[in-house]
Structure formats: C-alpha cells, structure tokens
Amino acid sequence: MKILNPLLAAASALFATASAGVIGHCPVQDKFCMSIGVPESSAASGSGNIYFQVQSVADQYSWVAVGTGTIMSGSNIFVFYTDGAGNVTVSTRRGTGHTLPQPQSDTRVQLLAGSGVANGIMTANVLCQNCESWSGGQMDLQGKSSAWIAAWREGSPLNTQSADARITQHQDTDTFRIDLTQATVTQDANPFVTGAAAGTGNNGNTNSGNNSGTGAGNNGGIGVGNTGGTSSTSGSGPDMLLIHGVIMTAAFALLYPLGSILIVLVRKWYFHVACQVVAFIAMWAGFGTGYTTARNTGTLFKDGHTIFGTVVVSAMVLQPILGSLHHHYFKKNGTRSPVSYAHIWYGRVLMLLGIVNGGVGLRAAGSPQTFTIVYAVIAAMSGVAYVACALVAGMRKGGGSGAERSKEDGSYSPNSATADFGPNRYGYQTGQGADTSRNQQYQFQSRGRGSDEQYGWTR
Ligand SMILES: *[C@@H]1O[C@H](CO)[C@@H](O)[C@H](O)[C@H]1NC(C)=O
Ligand SMILES: *[C@@H]1O[C@H](CO)[C@@H](O)[C@H](O)[C@H]1NC(C)=O
C-alpha cells in the first residue's frame, strides 16, 4: 500500500489530465486559439473558478482578445498582449459598443503557470474566479451553447505591463459558441499545466499534425486539441466596416453634392436624377453593410451613429418624392412651388447631417487618423464646390437676368441668392437672359405638354 498510494496519486493525476475536457476554438486557425476548462465543482454550483487558455503568435499580433457574450457591447472582455518581459498582460475590459472597451477590475482574473512567451507563441493560462456573471451579462457554466466573441489586431506587440494600455481598434472579430458541458475538468486546478507538459508554455494543445508554417518558427504551433462542442459563426470583418465607410462617403460626401451641383452646372434634370439615383442606391448599400456590422458588433441602435444614420437614410426616401412633385408642378405651371424649396432645403439638411454622421461614425469606430483626414478633405472639397456653385448661380441671377426671369415665369425668389440652386434648374430654366433662345426653348418645354415625350418624362 505504501507503494500504491503514490501510484494511485499519479494515476489519478494522469486520469485528470486525460479526462480534462478542455475544449477550444481558434478564431484564427494556427495563429490565435483559445481553450476552456470548467471544474466540475464550478459547473455543479453554477459559479466559481473557470480556466481558460489563450495562445497567439507572439510577434504577429498587437493584441488578441476574447470575451463572453454574443456581442461586444456589454461583453466581459479579456485583452491579451505581451508584457515586454517574456510574459503576458491580461486586461479585463467592459465592452461598450463602438468605442474602446474600458478597463475594469470587477472581473477577478489570475495569470497562471505556463503563461509566457515561448517558441514564438504567447500563452496566457488564466483563472477567472467570477466569470459566471458581470455587469452586462451572465454565463451559464453548464451552458450547452455558451456565447463567446474574439477580436484581434495584427501589428507589433504592445509589450507593456499596463493593463490600461490603449489598444487600437480590432481588425477582425469572430463569434463562436462553446458547449461547456463538454469542457468540464475534474479538478479545480490549472488544467493546462498538468503532467509533463508543465512549464513548456505549449501544453499539448498542438494541432492535429499540420501546423507547419505558422511562421513564428515555433515547434508546436497553435491549435486546440478538442474542438468538439464549439461552433463558429463568422463575425463581421473589418472589411464590412471599411466598405460601409467608403460607400457612405461616396454617397453623402461625393455623389449627392455632385448631383446637386450638376443641376446648376449642366442644367439637365436627368443628369441630376441619374446621379442622385446612384447615390440613393449606394446609400442603401452602405446602410446594409452598416446594419450588418452594427448587428454583429452589438451596436445596432445603441449608439448615436447607428440611430442617427438610420434616421437620415430613412428620411432620404422622401427626397425623390419631393423632387418628382416639384418637377411635375414646375412642368405644369412653370413656377416653383413650396415643394421646390422643400426639396432643396430638405436635401441640403440631409446631406449635411449625413456628412456629420460620417464623422461621428469614424470617431466611434476609432478609425485611423488617415481615414478621418481623407474623409474631411473629401467633405470639405465637396462643400467648397457646392457653395461656389451656389454663389455662381446667385451671381448669374443677380446679373440682371433674374428680374427678367421673374417677369417671365415668376419662379424666382429675388431675395435668395442660392434659391436658384437646385431643382428649379431641371433643365427648363437655363436661360438667365444670356442665352435667350435656349431660355425660350425651355420655357416652351416647361409649358408645352408635347415636350414631355421628348424628355421621356413620365406623367
Ligand atoms: C508569467 O506569470 C505567471 C503568473 O505570475 C507565472 O506563473 C509564469 O511563470 C510567468 N511566466 C514566465 C515565463 O515568467
Ligand atoms: C496541411 O496544410 C496544407 C496547407 O494548408 C495543406 O495543403 C495540406 O493538405 C495539409 N495537410 C494535412 C495532412 O492536413
């Protein structure tokens, strides 16, 4: 029996290792993986210690993060980065939607043995003592479909021991589910360093044979031994957010202003309509990408940008209707109606609000400064072009022709320098005195019903 005791102990230790139901998931295959083990005692009581491990290629990521919950907003987030001294900094944060997750210390975590940077791999073995609940959510330690999120940023390692380090916006995200009933471990102890693997920093969680070429020259690679019970639902990439930004910039800062300028410069209503239709379609495509991104990051209708953006985009639906009403009225009566001014000013206000909301979105997304600068330059150039056009239109009118035109069709507001700028230019009112023949031609068209067909304008 004297011999048997240590043998039994060894056997049970071995058994503990073998039966460790640690399961995991790789947000980035071979490069960033996490595993979790829930002690039976914690699973039974519904609270207490849980253990998880996060591994990533050390020199490739600025930081990596996992969090509990379905969405970033309200998630219990753990950010990991190298501490610059061969170990890992764990930063617990509260997900707040679009903005930088704020450091918090409510979550009790401990970095455990086996953590560190070895063979090019950053390993964090973590004990969390109260992960079953946090302000913002709860996790059922026996949940069959426990929701997790992950995020990461490629780049040079942060190398800081500060848990409050400012992190750059994530580059990509992943959401996945773990069946915690398959993650139970018998003992309430670090399941990642049992047995012979202790202290190597790579505890047997290697890939199933094929992990050559992870790039870091590591010997084991990164992977998880058991992915059974986890499922991944692909998250919204940064691409979606980028596409959203590019499309919306094109729509609000370029196309809408351009369409408004065209009606003044080219004076053909169909160019104006064509441009605004393209902008309108682009805007809805931008809304779609924004909606998807916001839904995946949990920010939908939870921050100013998404709410305000939805309002502006929805309000824009009225604009083609106003334009069409104006057009019909003008065609029939040869004069502007209140709806004409509504069309002009409604459009101006929405364009401006859209551009402002773009800035809000850039800020909320923590976009690189370059993006903000490019956006500001585009918006400013459009703004200058727009105002210049409005002034030119005003000067044209001010140059004597306005009176003439007022006499002719009474469609001009003599006291508004920019009133000309907009749908009144639907190609009918091009004259401004200088080009009398054209003017008359258009006057004719604006009154003669026969010309409708010629312009293909539906009644
Ligand atoms: C990292 O820190 C943990 C917790 O203090 C410790 O157990 C571990 O040995 C450290 N790793 C290295 C490589 O120093
Ligand atoms: C290993 O990975 C390479 C590259 O991804 C792939 O072509 C190959 O089929 C894999 N081999 C095995 C055994 O999975």
Word description of this protein:
Residues 427-448 have a biased composition (Polar residues). Residues 212-228 have a biased composition (Gly residues). It is a single chain. Helix 4 packs antiparallel against helix 5 (304-315) and helix 5 runs antiparallel to helix 7. This protein has 2 domains: 19-233, Cellobiose dehydrogenase, cytochrome domain (Immunoglobulin-like, Sandwich); 238-455, no CATH class. The radius of gyration is 32 Å and the shape is elongated. The protein is built from 10 helices and 16 strands. The chain is α+β, with helices and mostly antiparallel strands. The strands form 3 sheets. Strands 1, 2, 3, 8, 9, 10 and 15 form a 7-stranded mixed sheet that branches. Strands 7-6-5-4-13-14-16 form a 7-stranded antiparallel sheet, with no helix packed on it. It is 42% helix and 20% strand. 44% of the residues are buried. Strand 9 and strand 10 form a beta hairpin. Residues 11-20, 195-219 and 400-459 have low confidence and may be disordered. The protein binds 2-acetamido-2-deoxy-beta-D-glucopyranose (2 copies).
User: Biggest sheet: strands, sense, closure?
Assistant: 7 strands, mixed
Shape: elongated
The radius of gyration over CA amounts to: 32 Å
The portion of residues forming beta strands comes to 15-25%
Helix fraction bin: 40-55%
* Total DSSP helices: 10
The quaternary organization reads as single chain
- The overall pLDDT, averaged over residues, is 77
What letter string, H or E per element, gives the SSE order? HEEHEEEEEEEEEEEEEEHHHHHHHH
Number of domains: 2
Specify the structural class.
alpha+beta
User: Uncertain spans, ≥5 residues at pLDDT below 50?
Assistant: 11-20, 195-219, 400-459
From the N-terminal CA to the C-terminal CA, the straight-line distance is 102 Å
Enumerate the distinct ligands.
Answer: 2-acetamido-2-deoxy-beta-D-glucopyranose
Strand elements, count: 16
